[in-house]
Amino acid sequence: MFGFRVIKTALAAFASIMIAHFVGIPSATSAGLLAILGLDTTIKRSVKTVVDRFFASIVGLIVACVLFGTLGFHYWVIPLYILIAFPVIVKATFKGGIVTNAVVVFHVFNAGEITWPVLWTELQLLVIGLGSAMLVNLIYMPNPEEKLSKIRSEADECFSRIFAQFAKTLRNPDYVWNGKELIEADKKVAEGLELARRSRENQVLKSDEFWGVYFVMRKQQLESIQTMAQLVSQVYRQISQAELTAELFDRLEQDVKSEHYTGNAAEMLKELEEQFKEMSLPETREEFEVRSAILQLCRELNRYLGLSKKDKAPHIT
Q: Which H/E stretch holds residue 73?
């Protein structure tokens, strides 16, 4: 992604310099600088960046014309200009265009006169430089679908391995799990959320929310899984209810990688809860504590499955 952006920057700078040179603007390389400043990571952000930089420069030119025309072209006028113009630009919500504005105004200062040809030159540089940046961004943005699908598969695989670890711990309380899968899953979900956001900002005419919704769901589920991990760690002895719950996580280990909501784990959970109701009460304090943790685990699992049912597409048979 970084390398691709560098290529786009080079193309925008080259195109703007060549256009400015063809038009006959003396400082054609300045158009390249403005093009570099106008590029951004997504189409929507690029449009906002270009708009901010253009109107910030217009505001700055107006203030510069007043100050330079009244006080003259002296070095001490420049800090005065900054003290007046920059707050005005920020208040006008064009903060992102302060640097571009400075480039344009300093050109006018170096020219040493306020005339229409000087101002027209700066306006041409703005239009050519910022316009080239916007055009390059609009022409092509990489399609993130393949990468999003890959991140989804990797995140789902992390979730699957987490459930496998839950099942293993429930069957063998002496087993020690380091929890690295939780860290990996968190990184993948965060990566997916960021890429989904950039993808959404590159959609000008339509806005597909699928990937954003999916990774938000996974983030919420990950929070639920972290709660489940704490409850699993409280199952410190082997009992029959732990084995039955482990079988449920065996099912989830497979279901979590499905693109659709199958409902299999939810059915198993419902049956398991009915079985628990029919079992005799705990005979010892230890058994009571462990069964209490398993019961809370099942309730948290029910919340997790509810998120899947809400945001995953239903399975069609």
A: none
- 9, 51: one domain: yes
CA angle 300, 230, 303 (to 5 degrees): 10
Give every CB contact of residue 96 below 8 A, 6+ residues apart in sequence. 48, 49, 52, 53, 56
Assess whether 219 and 117 both reside in one domain: no
Domain limit, last residue, from 110, 139, 168? 139
231: left (phi over 0), alpha (psi -120 to 50) or beta: alpha
191: how many CB neighbours lie within 10 A of its CB? 16
Q: How far apart are the first and last CA of the chain?
A: 39
DSSP string, 162-214: HHHHHHHHHH-TT-----HHHHHHHHHHHHHHHHHHHHHHT-SS----HHHHH
Separation between Cα atoms, residue 231 and residue 308, nearest integer Å: 21
pLDDT for the residue 317: 40
pTM over 0.70: no
**pLDDT (tens digit per residue) in 266-296:** 888 888 888 877 777 777 788 788 888 888 9
Range of the domain at 176: 145-314
Nearest to 268 by CA among 243, 251, 290, 292: 251
Looking at the 3D structure of the chain, how many domains does it have?
A: 2
Contact 61, 104 (CB under 8 A): yes
Which residue, chain included where needed, has tokens 């293993």? 168
Can you list the alpha helix ranges (DSSP code H) found in 112-179?
Answer: 116-139, 145-171
What is the per-residue pLDDT across 37-46, written as a single tens digit (0 to 9) for each? 887 767 777 7
Tell me the C-alpha distance between 18 and 23, whole Å. 9
Q: How many residues does the chain have?
A: 317
pLDDT tens per residue, range 295-306: 899 899 989 888
pLDDT tens by residue, 192-230: 998 888 777 666 555 567 888 889 999 999 999 999 999
